[in-house]
Amino acid sequence: MGNWKRGFAVVSSAIIMTSGLLASSAFAAAPTVRRDAPVVHLTYWNMWSGIWTQVVQKMVDEFNKTHPTIQVTMTSVPSANGEQKLLTAIAAGDAPDVFTEWNPYIAAFAQQHALMNLSTFMTGKYAGLKHWFYPVAAKWGEYKGSMYAMPWTMNSFLLYYNKTFMKQAGLNPNNPPRTLAQLWADQAKEWKITKDGVVQQIGYYPAGNFEQLMPMFGATPGDFFNGKKYTMTSPKAMSIMNFFAKFKKYPYTQVNAFEKGLTGAAGGSEDPFELGKAGFIVNGMWEMPTIQQFNPKLQYGVVPIPVNPGGYYNTTWVNGNYNEIPTGSKHPQQAFEFIAWLSGYQNAAWAARAYPTGGWIPNSAVITKQPAYQKFLKQAPLRKKFVDVMLSVHDAITPVTPVDMFYEQKLANAQDYVLEGKKTPYQALLHLQQVANQQLQQTK
Q1: Which residues of 303-332 are buried (b: 16+ CB within 10 A; e: fewer)?
Q2: N or C, which terminus of the chain has less Cβ within 10 Å?
């Protein structure tokens, strides 16, 4: 299925911002330093391209202006093989000083000793850094109790709903679904499928949403991984996949064809919700600017993802962008200073002005509370909902293991097997559990 359904995809690349956002930046006057002070040059790699290169480059430029003795050179590497390129550079003794990661490779790299343990730098003025972040943000960058990747900007997920579709289906757009049972019933009224089985409009389709639904079923990472092995046939994992199984009534092949048709005729967007072809979608805050770009007349709302009995309302599954210091960094102390600055630590006012240029959710409540970020939220009140869920004690992440990426890929397959009707929920989860544990055993 397409990237619009995948939670671990490179969500940042899906956002399309206007040039007006790029123009807004906060520049501070450079401090006065001795002319003979030595200058440390850092190499910084990330996998952004296009407009995102410009967004991040402006932040790097600001750091260089305010830190004349540390100068950062940014390089964009292809996202398709960015991690492999990093490992090759480390093996060759030519590692960059900083790498931005958004895919679930952190534990794998830590296990391979490819990343520096950031905890060793958290002394002195950085002693409180780990506890400065939203707790759920810090967890995604940790492995075996130590931080190997520093939270930068985060992704949370809520339910978007098309108000026009709700009206057309005889539903009250002021009463969006709060439970998954209500979502199932409401979305069923919004599908349009011809007698020949051609999908013309969808209500809601959950492919790729298994992880985003974790808190909605009261699930925690411990329900899928017990610290030693994957436990994917646990009751809560089964409950989530049983919800997926309800959607096999919709023609999987035709849903795929529907999506591919949109891709070919979208004029830049592949998202059925943005294009007014879907009634509900689980997605992040980046959906808002793309709606404005492609379908500004769309009447929509945003609410927390509906819950199952025993689930947690107004919570979210979280991932995001994280900064790492690869093993072999020639200037690790200065690299740490750079990524701590980017994170907004002791720099919250700047971060509150800079993060809106990317439409980003902060990694810390300290940044969120800054006047500049509050102003950003008030400009489009729906944004606040994506930030508020970051405070829930029930927010979830995917279990952090050395085979995270393999697990994610096989989880995507398991979801599709169930939606296609090729496997029962138990069969799909049992297979996932077996292959993930086999892969995990090979890392020991």
Answers
A1: bbbbbbeebbbbbbbbbbbbbbbbbbbebb
A2: C
Which is it for strands 199-201 and 192-193: parallel, antiparallel or unpaired?
antiparallel
62-74 tens-digit pLDDT: 999 999 999 999 9
Shared domain for 27 and 138, answered yes or no, is yes
Residue 321: the pLDDT is 96
The pLDDT, as a whole number, for residue 260 is: 86
Residues with Cβ within 8 Å of 258's Cβ and at least 6 positions away in sequence, in order, are 198, 199, 200, 202, 272, 277
Q: What is the DSSP track for 321-351?
A: EEEE-BTT-S-HHHHHHHHHHHHTTT-HHHH
Separation CA 266–CA 286 (nearest Å): 18
List 162's β-bridge partners, or say none: 300
The answer to whether residue 4 sits within a structural domain is no
Q: Would strands 70-76 and 98-101 be described as parallel, antiparallel, or unpaired?
A: unpaired
- 79/118 same-domain check: yes
364 in the same domain as 224? no
Please give the tally of structural domains in the chain: 2
Question: Same structural domain for residues 348 and 276?
Answer: no
- Residue entry with tokens 């994610």: 408
pLDDT confidence band for 228 (50 / 70 / 90): very high
- The residue range of the domain holding 178 is 158-316+401-442
Asked, for residue 2, whether it belongs to a domain, the answer is no
